[in-house]
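Team,

Forwarding the record for the chain on the shared tracking sheet. I've put the sequence and predicted structure together so nobody has to dig through attachments.
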Amino acid sequence: MHRHDDDDDDDDDDGGRDVVGGFMACPQHDARATHQYSLYSGCINALTHSLTHSHTLTHINTLTHTLSHTLSHINTLSHSLTHSLTHSSVRENLSLFSLIMDLLTCTLLWISALLSGPSGARAFMLPDISEPEFIRRCVQAHNVHRSRAQPPAANMRSMSWDDSLARGARSWARHCRASHNPVLKQEGKAHPAFRHVGENIWLGAPYSAFTVESAVNSWNKEGADYTLANNSCARLCGHYTQLMWATSYKVGCAVHVCSRGIENFSKHPESTIFVCNYGDAGNVFGFTPYIVGLACSKCGMEKCRDKLCTDPNRDQVKRYDWVPGWDLGPSGSAQAISDWLNGSKLQLLAGSFWLLYFYAMH
């Protein structure tokens, strides 16, 4: 686990839907709905800036302004929906109601950000584990260092993304603890497919101190204290050896801002934790991270790319219907609230639609 903050540095162990104004847009929407989106998007942008840069009073004033606009929009759209229920198709009705749900959902998310203050707003804007750019950066940051192993590695596999490893990393990051996930010690409990899962953790404050690349690079720097020839370490090298473990070929990472600080690390309101989980786990006692030799000379029938053993079938992203047993659920952060709302939207949509339908018919 690597720690970093301003004062101290030490080491320790849905496709198919368009987007308008940052929200999901209805497959069919009229000019009025588009105008509603435009106005609401402007309010949200103002709120984002306020939450990040201003004082609490400004936050409240901006939120009040945003809510006023939102309620007005929802009222207008609700009247449209009532009329639509009796004159339009089911698809149009669902589309209009989806717009209302998006407005309500986003408002709830920003309320949660307001309650957390400026750091809560930044937490809301953190990259999600499903964002392609975040995934690309995490994978690339690992593979860059693995391809540059010194001495050269003969059997270094290319790493690729694993969604379940990322879920596990995110769930543990939400605990805001400066320690490793104890579930990883339980064979077969930390992933639906891998029996053993490895973990690296970076800690820092404020959030601006974090980038994916700087965190992974800090783990790589531990290699200066590691001697491969006799598998010895002058200081702490566990992050480096996991990073360079040749047979670890899947990675999943997550970053989280702990507005109340990180246990046994910092009380800073922008304490940041970045967790990466690996399958299969590295750091197996008595073994070295990789075999020394000409790059890719021990790849077998696999292809060599950037001095790494690659297998298209192995690198495919597999998704499992699995939720980590240590997930905190909807409490603890704006991101958690976001996940809960997104997971519940279908039920909310169905239930609320029929309530509105019943109201309109009577």
